[in-house]
Amino acid sequence: MASMRAGLLMMCKSRVFTQFCHKAKHTKLAQCATANIGIRNVSSSYNSSINDEDDAMFLHGNKLHTPVMLDEVLEFMSPSENQVFVDMTFGAGGHSKAILDACPKTTLYALDRDPVAIAVAKQLSSKCYGDRLVPLEGKFSDLGKLLSSHNVRHNSIDGVLIDAGCSSMQMDSAERGFSLSKDGPLDMRMDSNRLPHQPTAADVVNALSEIDISKILKMYGEERQARKIARAIVQYRETFQPIATTKELAHIVSCAFTHREARKRKDKLSRPAHSATKTFQALRIFVNNELNELIMGLEQVERYIKPGGKLAIITFHSLEDRIAKRFLRGIDYSEKQSMNLRQKRRLGMAKDEEHGKPGMPMEEGHKNTVWKQIRKKVVIPTDDDIMKNPRARSAKLRTAVKCDDNIDND
DSSP secondary structure string, 26-55? Predict the structure, then answer.
């Protein structure tokens, strides 16, 4: 436990991103613990091992996945003969299949860190698309070395799609521990057992201090009641038992709120939201280092897309969308949010002077010349899209084309 806690503390220190309560009653936590005994007994019957091939066959055979904003992505990409694409979040393959089917002479590299998704990609490659579909197992930050292993050069890719966040098949699998509505082990690792030493969400809530848990919930879940929730988590594990399941954690977070407070919880569409929704989001992002991976992935994409090549980014919450927006606009990730015009001008002049340039206003000195955004405003799902896939309701699509005067031949 000591070594696990030390490793998690190192993760807390290394995963630093630009960021754009009262004590739970003992009797309430005791009631929560009593309820969780049954939950833990039920969850213990789960088989923690995942058969990648069986899961892939089930997913492929039953066609469970409905891609988010598929028509908009296809219209933007407009696949044509001999073009090469990269789907950096293959998942169940919905977007990739549509791109490959749109033109019979395209090639697509399917990147995913999830072994189940890679098993799906391998099945599709062997049975449907042959060498037109090339599975790449790894994280966003691994894109460069994986493409290099297939002799793909910089400035050679015609289009890249990033569908950020958690995939539907991960959310729908109780054994993966992503969903608060499905009881299972509190895991949340997108890599599953591919990286056995990677800490799980259970390791995080059972090993870190109240202050560290609070920081994670506030930074990655934008949770206003982070201290209250963190205090309830620490009280529960110290008084009763380590937290092991998704339902157990969801109950603990619920116990940190009064009924009136819980009823006030709404999502961004003003619908009732579970008290633990932001907690689960924060833990998932932290465990998988999602925001850093997105930043590193975008930097790799910029090197490999050819001039005139297309980039489509689908995000599902404000932290991801803020990174995508800043990347496409050429704004530094460390820049303070909500600066007034005077602050922006001062920052722009200071940065230009550091690079030996005459001071210029922010709008001139930091104008992005790498990407040309196709639309000023994001594309959001239609009502029909949301009916087909309710999880698409919070999605945002940003599209851009790489400008011709930014060529890196390394």
Answer: HHHHHHHHHHHHHHHHHHTTS-----HHHH
Supply the pLDDT for residue 298: 97
- Which residues contact residue 171 at a Cβ distance below 8 angstroms, ignoring those fewer than 6 apart? 178, 179, 391
Q: What is the DSSP string of 234-285?
A: HHHHHHT----BHHHHHHHHHHTS-HHHHHT-B-TTS-B--TTHHHHHHHHH
The residues near 206 (Cβ < 8 Å, ≥ 6 apart) are 237, 242, 243
The model scores a pTM over 0.85: no
Give the per-residue pLDDT at 377. Answer: 86
DSSP for residue 314 = E
Q: How many CA atoms lie within 13 A of 233 on its CB side?
A: 33
Distance CA 124, CA 132 (A): 10
d(Cα 10, Cα 351) in Å, to the nearest integer? 31
DSSP at 126: I
List all residues 6 or more positions away from 410 whose beta carbon is below 8 Å from its beta carbon. 154, 303
Sign of CA dihedral 35, 276, 239, 44: positive
Given a contact cutoff of 8 angstroms between Cβ atoms, the answer to whether 242 and 201 are in contact is no
Task: Classify burial at 271, counting beta carbons within 10 Å of its beta carbon; exposed 0-12, middle 13-18, buried 19 or more.
Answer: exposed
Pairing of strands 305-315, 396-402: antiparallel
Percent of the chain with pLDDT over 70: 71
CA 5 centroid distance within chain: 24
Helical ranges in 103-258 per DSSP H: 115-124, 143-149, 168-172, 201-207, 210-221, 226-239, 246-255
Distance from C-alpha of 125 to C-alpha of 128, rounded to nearest angstrom:
6
Q: Which residue is it, tokens 């990407």?
A: 371
Q: What's the whole-number mean pLDDT along residues 100-122?
A: 95
Please provide the average confidence, as pLDDT, over all residues in the chain. 81
* Residue 192: exposure state from Cβ atoms within 10 A (0-12, 13-18, ≥19): buried
Q: 147 to each of 89, 114, 137, 303, how far by Cα in Å?
A: 15, 18, 11, 11
**DSSP state letters, 335-381:** SPSS--HHHHHHHHHHHHHHTTPPP--HHHHT---SEEES-SSPB--
Q: Are 301 and 371 in contact (CB under 8 A)?
A: no
Rounded-to-integer distance, Cα 86 and Cα 134, Å: 9
Cβ atoms within 10 Å, residue 60: 20
Q: Which amino acid is at 159?
A: G
